[in-house]
Amino acid sequence: MMQENIFLKIVERKLPANIVYEDDRCLAFHDINPQAPVHLLIIPKKVIPTHADITEADKELLGHLHWVAAQLAKQLGLDAGYRLVLNCKEQAGQSVPHLHFHLLGGRRMHWPPG
Ligand code: AMP
C-alpha cells in the first residue's frame, strides 16, 4: 500500500533521518528498517512519484543518482559488491511514492529476488 510522501518531509527537514550525503539534487540516508548491514536510500529532492513517471528532462538527474550511489558504495567499502534496487509501483513493493534507490551491501545477496 502506498503511503503519503514521507521522503519529501525528509527533504524538507520536517521529518528526521540519518542523512549521510546531500547535494543540490539529492539526499542519501539510512533506511529505518535495514535489510542488510548497509542499507541506504538515495532520493532526488525533486518529487518523482515512481520510476514510470521519469521524463526526458530527468535523464541527467537519474545519472547523477547512479553516480552518487557508486561514490557512497566506495566510501562505505562495499568493494566485494552491492545491490542497487528500485521498486516501481505496487506490484514491485513500492511503499513510498517518491522515487528512490536502495543501496544494499555488506552481505551476500540472493537471486532471484523475492
Ligand atoms: P519501497 O518499499 O521500495 O518503497 O521502500 C521504502 C523504504 O523506505 C523501506 O525500505 C522502508 O524501510 C523505508 N522507510 C520508510 N520510512 C522511512 C523513514 N522515515 N526513514 C528512513 N527509511 C524509511
What features would you describe in this structure?
This protein is of the alpha+beta class. It has helices at residues 6-11, 59-75; strands at residues 19-22, 26-30, 38-44, 82-85, 101-105. The chain has one domain: 2-Layer Sandwich (HIT family, subunit A). The chain contains 2 helices and 5 strands. It has a 5-stranded antiparallel β-sheet with strand order 1-2-3-5-4, covered by helices on one side. Strand 2 (26-30) and strand 3 (38-44) form a beta hairpin. It binds adenosine monophosphate. Adenosine monophosphate binds at residues 6, 15, 17, 31-33, 41, 87, 93-96.
Largest sheet: 5 strands, antiparallel
Strand order of the largest sheet: 1-2-3-5-4
List segments where confidence is low: pLDDT < 50 over at least 5 consecutive residues.
Answer: none
Taken together, the total number of domains comes to 1
Bin the helical content.
10-25%
What is the mean pLDDT? Answer: 97
What fold name stands as the CATH topology? HIT family, subunit A
Radius of gyration: 14 Å
Number of helices: 2
Q: Strand-residue fraction?
A: 15-25%
Bound molecules: adenosine monophosphate
Please give the number of β-strands.
Answer: 5
